[in-house]
Amino acid sequence: MDRSAHLLSEHGLKNTPVRRKVLSFMEERKHAVSHAELEGAFNGDADRVTLYRALNTLEEKGIVHKVLGRDGIARYALCQDDCTVHRHDDQHLHFHCNTCMNVFCLAVDDYPEVNLPAGFMLSKIQLSAEGICDNCK
Ligand SMILES: [Zn+2]
Ligand SMILES: [Zn+2]
Ligand SMILES: [Zn+2]
Q1: What is the reported pLDDT for 131?
Q2: Most CB atoms closer than 10 Å: which of 20, 30, 46, 80?
Q3: How many angstroms is it from 75 CA to the middle of ligand 2?
Q4: What is the per-residue pLDDT for 91?
Q5: Which ligand approaches the C-alpha of residue 127 most closely?
Q6: Quick one: which ligand is closest to 100's CA?
């Protein structure tokens, strides 16, 4: 079983060709992928609605997460292992390239801890950075 098939069965999802292909496309990319990129990859093999639905399901189940690019376009990337149906727990940095506008999920050694004033409750911290990616430099 390849990784995509494994991810689907692990999360109790039916192994459909569209879901499989979405996941393997993301695995092959270093950056988070947009709808347009996915549509291009499918090249008419799946209509927009099917693609959107597959992405929503994958996001709901904690398999992929959504990140907005600085251009306002939503992109999707595979989650780390600790995301669940109820909670996305993607503790990594989102690096935004100012040239190609791609977003990269990068691991961070020490994730910051914050001390909040009394009465505040933390649900998640999002780290983001801007710069130039290795492709554009
Ligand atoms: Zn996640
Ligand atoms: Zn770039
Ligand atoms: Zn990410």
Answers
A1: 98
A2: 46
A3: 15
A4: 82
A5: 3
A6: 2
Domain extents in the chain: 3-131
119 CA to middle of ligand 2, Å? 40
Q: How far apart are CA 134 and CA 34, in angstroms?
A: 19
DSSP state at residue 41? H
Q: Which ligand sits closest to the CA of 96?
A: 2
**Other CB atoms within 10 Å distance of the CB of residue 78:** 21
> Are 108 and 127 in contact, with CB atoms under 8 Å apart?
yes
* Ligand 2: centre distance to CA 101 (Å): 6
CATH class belonging to 3-131: mainly alpha
User: How many Å lie between the centroid of ligand 2 and the Cα of residue 10?
Assistant: 33
pLDDT in tens, 31-83: 999 999 999 999 888 889 999 999 999 999 999 999 999 999 999 999 987 78
CB-based contacts of 2: which residues, under 8 Å, 6+ apart?
24
110 pLDDT band (50/70/90 cuts)? confident
Ligand with smallest separation from the Cα of 94: 3
Mention every residue, 6+ apart, whose C-beta is less than 8 A from residue 131. 95, 96, 97, 98
User: Cα(94) to centroid of ligand 1, in Å?
Assistant: 13
